[in-house]
Amino acid sequence: xxxxxxxxxxxxxxxxxxxxxxxxxxxxxxxxxxxxxxxxxxxxxxxxxxxxxxxxxxxxxxxxxxxxxxxxxxxxxxxxxxxxxxxxxxxxxxxxxxxxxxxxxxxxxxxxxxxxxxxxxxxxxxxxxxxxxxxxxxxxxxxxxxxxxxxxxxxxxxxxxxxxxxxxxxxxxxxxxxxxxxxxxxxxxxxxxxxxxxxxxxxxxxxxxxxxxxxxxxxxxxxxxxxxxxxxxxxxxxxxxxxxxxxxxxxxxxxxxxxxxxxxxxxxxxxxxxxxxxxxxxxxxxxxxxxxxxxxxxxxxxxxxxxxxxxxxxxxxxxxxxxxxxxxxxxxxxxxxxxxxxxxxxxxxxxxxxxxxxxxxxxxxxxxxxxxxxxxxxxxxxxxxxxxxxxxx
Length: 393
Ligand SMILES: *Cc1c(COP(=O)(O)O)cnc(C)c1O
What we know:
Blueprint: H1 3-11, E1 28-31, E2 34-38, H2 51-64, H3 79-92, E3 96-100, H4 103-114, E4 120-124, H5 129-138, E5 141-145, H6 150-159, E6 165-170, H7 182-193, E7 202-207, H8 221-224, E8 233-238, E9 248-252, H9 254-263, H10 265-268, H11 275-290, H12 292-311, E10 323-327, H13 331-343, E11 346-347, E12 350-351, E13 360-364, H14 371-381
Parallel strand pairs: 2-11, 4-5, 4-6, 6-7, 7-8
Antiparallel strand pairs: 1-2, 3-9, 8-9, 10-13, 12-13
This protein binds pyridoxal-5'-phosphate.
């Protein structure tokens, strides 16, 4: 069974393997017995390895034990879950927040909860797979607009009359590191909502997985653009990336969140996160609030890397964040470039279909990297130009 399918993947260099670390998730990791400088994690603030998270988890383990034994609606969650939700709502300046077991769970649960088969979802062409799956599960009509093209979105919106519309977008696109044009989308929503009798008919759902902890002093993309939360905006964020923990949240209007808690199937029909995981997320949120220098450091290192890449003549696409894609001419070249770096003690993964249409090396940097490690990456990349996509290819 599936041998032929696997063989086809192998032939096309699309067969992937699970790669397991023999060390914590840090700027230097051990893979297959060798140490590598790690440019493959989404641990943007370097919190995954911070002792405060472990200490908080250990303390919660003492108070609540490990397993949670039931869903939130059946007392599976603890007081720590409530505490985390209050902390998130206060951080995001929203009426309420709800914890989900993962970002994947949040998107596949919340999007279907926000619409019916009568409604229309408008989804950016490069949205994350979990959004695509959420749209499919919803059974609502899904209209895909061109990547970041707000005038295209506007045209498509005017075609759908008399139905509830939900615009769904990543704030930071996970494989390109570019950002949605949030101010434009926000203004478009305001203008549509200001029409008579259109009040209830438009929602904006933001996936801030890569904006949380990175943008807007850690508060995310809305805060970055100085846009105020609104009752018609639902923001999803994760604890699993910059916050170095695990799980996700949805933040927004109190009534909307009460509806989500009563209808999102991934929330209702799944066991609550262990309290020790929740405690680690709380500790991480505390660090983000108390140590703004971490975010400054992340952006300083990003500038350093970008300058080095520009000097070497590398194109970094529209990247505006610590996610930096280096597009290659082919899947094979992405693998070659990644292997060249491995040979120089650097781990930066090749990303290929189905994760992306266009193969690339995806580099992510974190506040925990050192200048020396960034310089080492730049030196190693000086040898890799020949694998890159050249303009016009
Ligand atoms: C990683 C990611 C998710 C999923 O979050 P998990 O907590 O890892 O399940 C959702 N959306 C985007 C944009 C992501 O990058």
